[in-house]
Amino acid sequence: LKKGEKKITEKHQDDYTKILPVYKIGDLKKETATHIYMDKAIKKGSVVIQRHSIRIRGKEYCKWIDDSYLLIGKAYFYKGDFENAIKSFNFVKNEYKKNPIQFEASLWLIRAYSEKKDFVAAEVELIELQKKRRTPKKIKKELKLVAADFYLKQENYSLALENLKEAILATKKNKKKSRLYYICGQILQEHNNFKQAAEYYKKSLKGSLNYETTFNAKMNIARFSERNEKEVE
Fold it and tell me: How far is Cα 67 from Cα 153, in angstroms, rounded to an integer?
């Protein structure tokens, strides 16, 4: 699963004429080259469930079964098979209500519904997870990114920006933070807030960006600088 996920991310090509997506996954329905990895993950997860599940009076005694169901759901997600992914995530969420894994399953449910463009179902899951108590800190951090992704897909830029800003505060990795800064800059640029957009582009350059993103950030900053000079004249 991790190998396939890495290849999807590496193969992804950003379109700088549009606002960049939060997750570098592209159109998963068209990404068939990594199916071999996902099929293997599904097979391995299924084998664990079939051979090692120990259920007595409705209680599961093998601690790896819930992880295997979640693994299978993720593999279906990366194959672009969102129907089966949703079934797997729903099963984990409903079957393991007393286990912290339910929160991760809910996160992936939101992502699966969003990729499927079932935004009504995605919003229901999003609101439900936001209201839940005792949500692990790790899940709360990722939820900001998932929410930003959800709102970007619907071009609800104000709420996307709000969640991106909160995600930046909770993110430690410079590479991820730089991308989020860049996306914030794009959203602000879209709304003609060039001064703030330039600030976010500058912040994105302080982290670790690839050549293309760095080039586009510098170009946008230069355009805004030239624009400001003309306005002063």
Answer: 29
CA angle 99–103–108, rounded 5-degree value: 130
Mark out the alpha helices in 12-118 (DSSP H runs): 35-52, 65-79, 82-95, 101-115
Q: Which amino acid belongs to residue 150?
A: F
- Tokens found for residue 166: 């909160």
| Cα dist from 96 to 101, 110, 127, 138, 146, whole Å | 7, 17, 20, 18, 22
Question: How many angstroms separate the Cα of 49 from the Cα of each of 64, 70, 75, 209?
Answer: 8, 11, 15, 41
Length of the chain counted residue by residue: 233
Q: What angle, 0 to 180 degrees and rounded to 10, lies between the N-to-C axes of helices 211-232 and 174-190?
A: 40
Chain segment 73-132, per-residue pLDDT in tens: 999 999 999 999 999 999 999 999 989 999 999 999 999 999 999 999 999 999 999 999
| Tens-digit pLDDT profile for residues 9-22 | 999 999 999 999 99
Over residues 151-205, the pLDDT tens digits come to: 999 999 999 999 999 999 998 888 889 999 999 999 999 999 999 999 999 999 9
Phi, psi (degrees; rounded to nearest 5) at 226: -65, -40
